[in-house]
Amino acid sequence: MLSPLLHDDPETVGRYRLLARIGSGGMGTVHLARTPGGRTVAVKVLHPRLAGDPEARTRFRLEADAARVIGGRYGAGVHDADPAAPLPWLATEYVTGPSLDEAVEAGGPLPEPAVRAIGAALAEGLGQLHRSEVVHRDLKPSNVMVTAFGPRIIDFGVARAVGDAPLTRAGSALGTPAFMSPEQAADLEHGPAGDVFALAGVLVFAASGHGPFGSGSAADLLYRVRYADPDLGGVPPALVPVLARCLDKDPARRPATGELAAALTDGTGAHGPAALLADVLPDAVLREIARRGDDVWREPPHRLPPPPPDTPPATGPAAPAVSRRKLFAMTAGAVAAGAGLAGGGVWAWLAGRDSGTGGTARGRTTAQTVKPPARLWTFAVHIPNARAEVLAAGSGVAIPAGIVLCGVNAESGEGSWQADLADGWRYAADGKKLYALRDPEEGDTLAVCEIDMTDGQPGKPLAEVPDLAGDEPRNQLLCVVKDIAYLAARAASGGSWYLLALGLGDGRVRWRTALDAARQQNEPPLLCAAVTGGRLLRFRSDSGLSSFLEVTAHDLADGTQKWSRSEPYDGPPPTRIVHDDRHFYLGADALTAVRLADGETAWRFGDLRDVGDSAGETRLYGAPEVRDGAVYCTEGDRGVVSVDALTGTLNWLEKGLKNRHLNRDEAPAVGEKYVYSLDEQGLRAVDLRTRTAVWTLPTDATVLSADTERGRLYVRQEKETFALPLD
Amino acid sequence: MEGLRQDDPARIGEYVTLARLDPSAEAHLVPERRYLARTADGARTVLVSLPPRGADPARWAAEAQWAGRLTQPGFWPVTQLGGSAAFPWHASPYRPVLPLTAALAAHGGPLPERTVRLVGAALAEALASAHVLGVAHGGICPAAVLLTAYGPLLGCFGAARALAPDGTRRAGVPGLDAGCLAPEAAAGHPVSPAGDVHALGAVLAYLATGHTVPERDEIPPALRGPIAACLSRDPAGRPAPAQVLAELAPGAAYGTHTAGTEPLPLPGRVVAALSDQSVRVLTLELPAEVR
Questions:
Q1: φ and ψ of A26, to 5 deg
Q2: What domains, with CATH codes, occur in chain B?
Q3: ipTM
Q4: What is the pTM of this model?
Q5: B150 interfaces chain A, CB cutoff of 8 Å
Q6: Which InterPro entries does its entry note (chain A) (predicted)?
Q7: Of A187, A421, B66, B90, which sits 20 to 30 A from A509 (CA to CA)?
Q8: Which residues on chain A are in Cβ contact (under 8 Å) with B73?
């Protein structure tokens, strides 16, 4: 409903301070705005590009006049207007709605008493307009707002005085074909009777869920409006005769507004002056009314920042443009361990221990009582920023670097090998060992191998599944827990996909269960998975809805699906599931805990919190981390919050943080003394006892990986990965 | 919502008062004085609470401090504490709210059983999660429950303690609804979870009949059992909030009622009253002399 102001929207219009955008149409943009006295209004401002167009200015003045004529009972009361201003504007009451089409979408066709009440009130409103010699000319469900007290007609953008010569471009193209009158469709004079025709169309829609002439292309609709009989299917029988009369092709045979209002009130007796529309509205519509009346009081969204400069500085070849398919094809032919990596288009190489460059300090380091710790080691990898995690496996650390995986000695930071493992979904570590799916070149059937952390070479297959395809690049090694590997893989024959649990000790398949086919040609079927609390939990991007995550839980013992739910999600999809043995956690508009047992929301944190100023960000809560019964994540730009993992109550909020833009994509890392979090100034350590930041290390890092076993924090930034002690 | 009277403060801290939330005729049943107020620049609108006349401001302020630290689901969030020891207040961002007394007035009488169950389940769940942590509310009465579009929130935290210290008789103290005080709380015992359950029973009775002390026959038959159990004179005989929740919303998952993520289905007139309040506050202007 409300969207953020754009960076070039003005601060104020007249004496109104703009808060948010309500919508934008052909003529102008409607803003939510406030007077100096705190009154909230809707301000429509003519598009700047039309400000010099006399015809547009005339139409804007007519709209303001029409809005004044209909007034606050049947329309949105006019607060003030200045059609003569350099940028003409019109301030009216903000009617929260929902609009009639939103109401029907929420609750289906309205019951007959509601249709009658809405119809009678709209007829009276139009009558008032017509008595002042104005016709609306664009009545449609989205221009009718439903309130508890009756419908309101908004948007008089194409209204004009009866008998006025049409403005040059004010022909049929301006109306809405589905609710146009036949005379309007024929480019003839649309008078008051034309509004009656449109009103009947709106009521057919309200009563049946479809317009009288259906939907389709504008040309089809224009034809049907002029020549076809209206479709009154689904309209309550008692309303059919009067609506059919209103939809007569001959304007002269349609009833006038007064007659129509009387006909609609007849027979019910309920529509007296004391009756409220709310009394006859279905629950779903009442809930939409209540929702909007409450939501308008939330903090308005923050103004969007200006777009970035046209061409961001390039660092090496433009990596995102290279498709994963192409990369895969490239690596599939490449040789393992360094050989042949000098060819064109290959942009990852080992640089061993890097001590001299130190090119990370940018900006001034402020005086701090506690200094950031010195780096334990730095490993240079000249790759574009990636969001791949650094994996700890026994004595080594595996760092994904574009088309290879680099093995690094965890103590010295020295690079020891690189393996031909491009696709992050084909390998996984369990903290001690690194496992990978066998290279398609090496065998036809699916197999899981251990990667030797000293030389990066795959060992003999630990387990093999003959009827699953080994050459499917999208096969996925989700995780390895207690010597059982969890995989998503395609059958050797046919296109079916399976989710399976494969014992690595005995090579035995514990269970397998069908998985919907992978949707994307070059993406694996799932985002990530985790084993916890007797469940295998998996995330997937919801079909066609990039802002939703599909979360599904399987019984760990036999793979049966226990539950599945969809979660709205902003920002890059998670690469890791944050969980304890009771819940998993997501940060978005709120911090949410979902029970592993039944997939129900255990708690939500943040719904009623004022998260303060967070310029241009719609995401209020960042990616979370959980440790020792507390969930940590960023809250707006206020800092890190610690929330009780069991109950969702606030433990504490970081103190004294100002003027930072916090990184919402990367979860904080939690040590014994500090919680580490990224912001635009670098890596910040927040003392768990004093709840204040003790130091900030300047870095443009994008990945934080905590290695609690070894007490290390791996930080990945533009051209290097370095290790800090995890205190 | 009602216009300001001569004896109402014109300013509270940085806020200019605009209207009363509660009608003056009901002041003796409301444990706080509640105002709609706005910053002088018009930017923020809040709901501000003051101690009722005659109450000890220091004790009231101490309860407000506690309320400000709680982030219990289903509790009205107190986001700002202000004033002085002699004139304490607390404030929260405004959103449309109807004290249950106003909700019944808008509906024209007791609410339908379905609504009683939904509102009651949310209140029982809020108490269940507070009691687990050892937090007793100690101020529940119809006027203390603020109904929003997304469900009820428990305001007036600690009112019984704030208005009459433990050890003194609470029956008859202005601001405390006698029908909501458990016998032991009225006699001056410390506020307790069992006292909250008694008050919950009284609120349920109020929703279903319009009185906090109903005749048995007035209560819809299906609600008689849980309400009577809550109103038991013996604190040990009252159910835990989780049991009340289970009776009001059989089979529903715990944690779903106070989530407040979706609007509650409410009767048309109650929605109309919420919506009317929202529109009225949207259109309110600060008095010209402060601008």
A1: -65, -30
A2: 11-96+276-290 (3.30.200.20), 98-269 (1.10.510.10)
A3: 0.95
A4: 0.61
A5: yes
A6: Kinase-like_dom_sf, PQQ_rpt_dom, Prot_kinase_dom, Protein_kinase_ATP_BS, Quinoprotein_ADH-like_sf, Ser/Thr_kinase_AS, WD40/YVTN_repeat-like_dom_sf
A7: A421
A8: 603, 648
